[in-house]
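Sequence, please.
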């Protein structure tokens, strides 16, 4: 006789693996199909502390909105990769870090030559919008408000992330975190490099923030500076979506 609980679990897992339609935007809106079992989320540089006080405050606010999305996505079979750069020593004994180190290496090769257009904002001074702050390495780990699940992975290395995506036949990488004009674009595990390696990226545009000071060109409010970078990414790199649409679409 079949175990009723096992039967229910089978159908729950089967339902979670069904592809879902998500609204995406690349200057104009369209629909993309996501298969949760072939989708990963990478969380870029959501550190416990930043050298810029304004950035630290905005990351704290992002954490409160991001963690519920990760919980829902994880429960529906989406792989979660935590990428807090320059903090791997903190995680050296974490099972999620050790699991990443065991992934067989896949050798990436460039498949796309995407022009690197200039950003629409001036961030040459670091983009900090709070007075008196100067650079120092303030971060030690990912923000503790973000849950790291047993099946998650931890890495700040693009080749490791690429290998994990290939091992699991991941087709789509959802990118969230900070900062939109810097690490979100330029880290080895982030949009530019992954796009050039042929990975389909989608930026979760409401779960990101730019390093931008309104005192710098184009002299717009901070939120508009972030929007301008999002529009730049849509034009030159990849589509964007909202976390609300993702959560609503997941069964």
């Amino acid at each position: 006789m079949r175990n009723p609980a096992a039967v229910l679990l089978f159908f729950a897992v089967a339902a979670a693996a069904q592809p879902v339609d998500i609204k995406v935007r690349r200057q104009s809106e369209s629909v993309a199909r996501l298969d949760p079992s072939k989708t990963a989320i990478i969380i870029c540089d959501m550190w416990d502390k930043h050298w810029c006080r304004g950035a630290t405050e905005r990351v704290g606010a992002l954490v409160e909105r991001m963690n519920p999305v990760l919980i829902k996505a994880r429960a529906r079979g989406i792989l979660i990769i935590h990428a807090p750069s320059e903090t791997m020593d903190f995680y050296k004994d974490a099972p999620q870090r050790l699991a990443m180190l065991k992934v067989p290496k896949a050798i990436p090769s460039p498949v796309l030559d995407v022009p690197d257009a200039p950003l629409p904002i001036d961030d040459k001074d670091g983009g900090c919008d709070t007075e008196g702050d100067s650079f120092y390495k303030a971060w030690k780990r990912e923000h503790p408000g973000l849950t790291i699940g047993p099946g998650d992975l931890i890495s700040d290395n693009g080749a490791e992330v690429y290998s994990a995506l290939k091992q699991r036949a991941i087709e789509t990488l959802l990118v969230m975190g900070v900062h939109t004009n810097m690490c979100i674009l330029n880290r080895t595990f982030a949009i530019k490099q992954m796009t050039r390696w042929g990975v389909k990226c989608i930026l979760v545009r409401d779960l990101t923030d730019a390093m931008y000071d309104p005192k710098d060109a184009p002299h717009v409010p901070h939120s508009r500076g972030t929007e301008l970078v999002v529009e730049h990414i849509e034009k030159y790199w990849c589509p964007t979506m909202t976390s609300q649409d993702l959560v609503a679409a997941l069964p």
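The helical segments are 4-16, 53-75, 95-101, 158-167, 183-186, 191-196, 222-236, 243-249.
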